[in-house]
Amino acid sequence: MGYFRHESAIVDGGAEIGEGSKVWHFVHVCAGARIGREVTLGQNVFVAGGARIGDGCRIQNNVSIYDGVVLEDGVFCGPSAVFTNVVNPRAGVDRRSAYRETRVRSGATLGANCTIVCGVTIGAHAFIGAGAVVIRDVPDHALVVGNPARHIGWMSRHGERLELPLSGEGEATCPATDERYRLSGGEVRCLAN
């Protein structure tokens, strides 16, 4: 076992957990789950068998990663962030065949208590504000807040706000790293790429 597992955590046989990962108090990882290297699963995290978590992710306390949720590398999930996997759940109706994939692209941040409705894609390095309710796709580097979540700005790969207009064209510098970014055609790109 190349990862740390707290004695109160349950890791079902058939779950894959990468080297250097940490599985803390009262976590349950189901058979079939695939978790990358250097991942931290905080207290009371649940990972379903059909969930996929990339390398270097940080999942804070009380987050459930359900079937159909894919977190690419370097995703941060704040405390009590919520994922769903069925649009119209009913206790008496089996809708497991109706699960919709939710994808969170590399480097994105999900703030505490946000809700990500199934079937959306959160772009790379996007930032979802605390308590936001995301009901549609979020572009790369976008900052969204509110219920329903609305686009209010752009973020750097380092997690700093960029001085760019919401639309049109422009360039900005990350205040922490001096990386240059360009907004064009509704997309933000780091010029270092």
Brief rundown of the structure:
This protein has 193 residues and is mainly β.
How are the SSEs ordered, and which strands pair?
Layout: E1 4-5, E2 10-11, E3 16-17, E4 22-23, E5 28-29, E6 34-35, E7 40-41, E8 46-47, E9 52-53, E10 58-59, E11 64-65, E12 69-71, E13 76-77, E14 82-83, E15 102-104, E16 109-110, E17 115-116, E18 121-122, E19 127-128, E20 133-134, E21 142-145, E22 150-155, E23 161-162, E24 170-173, E25 180-184, E26 187-190
Parallel strand pairs: 1-4, 2-5, 3-6, 4-7, 5-8, 6-9, 7-10, 8-11, 9-12, 10-13, 12-15, 13-16, 14-17, 15-18, 16-19, 17-20, 19-21
Antiparallel strand pairs: 21-22, 22-23, 24-25, 25-26
Strand order of the largest sheet: 1-4-7-10-13-16-19-21-22-23
What is the average per-residue confidence, as pLDDT, rounded to a whole number?
97
- Tell me the structural class: mainly beta
Tally of DSSP helical segments: 0
User: What gap, in angstroms, lies between the N and C termini?
Assistant: 36 Å
How do the SSEs run, as a string of H and E? EEEEEEEEEEEEEEEEEEEEEEEEEE
CATH first level: Mainly Beta
Using only C-alpha atoms, the radius of gyration works out to: 17 Å
Low-confidence stretches: none
- Percent of sequence in beta strands: 25-35%
Number of strands: 26
CATH architecture: 3 Solenoid
Full CATH superfamily name: Hexapeptide repeat proteins
Overall, the morphology is globular
Here the CATH topology equals: UDP N-Acetylglucosamine Acyltransferase, domain 1
The helix content, as a percent range, equals under 10%
Instruction: Tell me the domain tally.
Output: 1
Major sheet size, sense and barrel closure? 10 strands, mixed
